[in-house]
Design brief:
- The protein has 113 residues and is α+β, with helices and mostly antiparallel strands.
């Protein structure tokens, strides 16, 4: 499934692809409801591909092992909830800011006057 959005002058493109089956230990991190849905096939693990574009700079990210509904109708809301809970937008904004900065020093280096 594919969809897009724009936030803070950054254009985001999302795509979900079925991910590999993870071991049972990953299921321990899920809620009881999610584990039951995983067992019944209502939920599967997906990989979320994120492409972020700002000022002709394009960065690509891959998030693996995200439990999502198999229904395309529910996935956008679930992805939004996941991205908000993991602060993905702020992390991507920081990466874009670093990439667009012309300064050659790393962000933690002190600047000499």
């Amino acid at each position: 499934m594919k969809f897009s959005c724009e936030l803070n002058d950054i254009e985001y493109f999302f795509e979900t692809i079925p991910g590999a089956c993870l071991s049972d230990r990953h299921a321990l991190l899920l809620s009881r409801k999610q584990r039951k849905q995983l067992q019944t096939g209502e939920v599967k693990y997906y990989t979320i591909l994120v492409s972020a574009t700002k000022d002709s700079l394009n960065l690509n990210f891959e998030i693996q092992g995200v439990p999502l509904s198999v229904s395309d109708d529910l996935q956008p809301e679930e992805i939004e909830d996941y991205i908000e809970s993991q602060l993905v937008f702020s992390k991507i904004e920081e990466k874009l800011k670093q990439a667009l900065t012309k300064d050659e020093n790393p962000i933690w280096a002190e600047k000499e006057n």
